[in-house]
Design a protein that fits this description.
By secondary structure, this protein is mainly alpha-helical. The chain contains 3 helices and no strands. The protein starts with 5 loop residues before the first helix and ends in a 23-residue tail after the last helix.
C-alpha cells in the first residue's frame, strides 16, 4: 500500500531528531514502537479471527455437503433395498407358482391314461395300481383280462369263448 523506502525513513528520523531533540527522541521512539506493535497485534488478531470464522464456515459447509451426500446415499440404498426386496418377493412368488404347477399339472399336460380318472367305488391305491373291483368291472365290460392286485397274487389266464375273424 504505502511504499516507504530507507531514504524516507532516514528523512523522518532526521526531522524527529530536530523537532524533539536528543533528550526526548528515545522515549518518543519507544512510545511509537509500542503503538506500532499494538496496531500490528490488533490487526493480526482481527485477521486471525476472520480466518477462523471463514474456516468454521467452510467446515460447516463441508459438513452439510457430507450430510447431504450421506442422506442421498441412504435414500439410494433404501430404494435399491426396496427394489431388491420386491424382486425377491416376485421371484419367490414365481417359484411358488412353478412348484404349484409342477405338483398339480394341467389335465391337458397329463398322458391319456392318467388324464381321465377311473370311476371306482373304492379309493385308488397310492402306488398307482388300479383297484381290483374297478379292473374287474372294466375287464367284464371290455373283455380284457382283469388286473391283479399285489395282495391277491397272479391270476391264471382265462380263455375267451369268442372267436375273432
Amino acid at each position: 500500500m504505502f511504499d516507504i523506502g530507507f531514504s524516507e525513513l532516514l528523512v523522518i528520523a532526521v526531522v524527529a531528531l530536530v523537532v524533539l531533540g536528543p533528550e526526548r527522541l528515545p522515549k518518543a521512539a519507544r512510545f511509537a514502537g509500542l503503538w506500532v506493535r499494538r496496531a500490528r497485534n490488533q490487526w493480526d488478531s482481527v485477521k486471525q479471527e476472520l480466518e477462523r470464522e471463514l474456516q468454521a464456515e467452510d467446515i460447516k459447509r463441508q459438513m452439510q455437503d457430507v450430510r447431504q451426500g450421506m442422506q442421498d446415499t441412504e435414500n439410494q440404498l433404501r430404494a435399491s433395498g426396496e427394489a431388491i426386496r420386491r424382486e425377491a418377493q416376485q421371484a419367490q412368488q414365481q417359484g411358488d407358482d412353478l412348484v404349484q404347477d409342477v405338483r398339480t399339472p394341467a389335465q391337458a399336460d397329463l398322458p391319456p391314461h392318467l388324464g381321465q380318472p377311473a370311476e371306482t367305488d373304492a379309493p385308488a391305491q397310492d402306488n398307482g395300481l388300479v383297484s381290483t373291483k374297478a379292473a374287474t368291472e372294466g375287464a367284464v365290460s371290455s373283455g380284457a383280462v382283469p388286473a391283479t392286485s399285489p395282495e391277491a397274487g397272479p391270476t391264471p389266464p382265462t380263455q375267451s369263448t369268442e372267436r375273432h375273424p
